[in-house]
Amino acid sequence: MKYKTQMEAAKKGFLTDQMKIVAKKENISEDILMQRLAIGSIVIPSNINHKSLSPVGLGDGLRTKVNVSLGISGDCDNYEKEHEKVQMALDFNVDSICDLSNYGKTFGFREQLIKCSTAMVGTVPVYDAVGYFEKDLASLTVENFLEILEVHANQGVDFVTIHAGMNRSAISKFREDGRLTNIVSRGGSLLFAWMELTGNENPFFEYFDEVLDILNKYDVTMSLGDAMRPGCLADGTDCGQIAELIEQSLLTKRAWKRNVQVIVEGPGHIAINEVETNVRLQKRLCHNAPFYVLGPLVTDIAPGYDHITSAIGGALAAASGADFLCYVTPAEHLRLPDLQDVKDGIIAVKIAAHVADIAKGIPNVREIDDKMADARKKVDWDGMFHCAIDPVKAREYHESVAIKTEGTCSMCGKMCAMRTTANILEGKDIGF
Questions:
Q1: Domains observed in the chain
Q2: pTM
Q3: Which of the two residues, 232 and 419, has the higher pLDDT score?
């Protein structure tokens, strides 16, 4: 093989099978795709050991992609239920599944996930370190952190979240400036605690070259985690967040020199008027690397409805240039999501991504909306259901109430505007 990673292949002018598939899916020329891969504005996360993957691209000029996060915890360790969530995500054609398991037999669950998933698979290896080595956090060594990273990479994970930007310099800014909610990233808080307990620098920052060696070996895309992301509106766009973003900018360039693909992660909670600014700032500082956001959530007061608050923020973020949206479920901040929560989160984030792609002017994206409009004009219910993001729910709602006038719904009945106008234009009796 004359190259190890998709980025290296693009730099050398080799058109890989993955590039051909993505170019066809996105209706983009192979040459343009290759050019953007070479400079890092597009990535194709595609681990050499993930054999079932149907490759997708993230970044400049491509459709907004969506991620579903799931996985077991100490309080909810039902593997069967998590696999049901995996299957639901695949049935809804999500682009990515991130395994956030932090308890029990994570290796086996991850192995099955990678084997069956046509979507790309992501993980946060630091979650797995304590359980894998059966040690207290403070007892973990740099070698342990690097080993668990290679375990995930060797299994076939396509991208890994690495919180390398939260170094001692960024932490000093966070300490000096102060925060209402401190560090809310789970991976970030674990690394922060390890650094404080041991007196050491962030191992992923200090040994960044060793991290790149592992990722390059398996062609794993690095998702530069936002350990200092704001956990409430009051902390949005503060010193800690920006200090980490600056470090992410420098780390991005270092990774590209080693032909490692990079995604940069962004804020979780920010006011709606700061969303576009955050996206533009990240794109500018991180050299137009693909941007991945959790939400963002644009208010802090909607527990139970955070799939809605995140969809609002996600639509605006993606329309402003973000490339990858992580879903948020109604269970966010409250519990591990159940199957219905996962479905609600998937539908919300798919709506947000589609809304954004219309605003971005992605070719052919609005065709399905025009088909829906035409079906509505004709009062063609089967046509409407076919165009719906969730056709099952749409049909169930329509058929849940008996109607008196054929072809209408229980909202307007014989006063259906579409029916009335069509009948008048065709010279027919409107029936009332």
A1: 6-360 (3.20.20.540), 367-425 (no CATH)
A2: 0.95
A3: 232
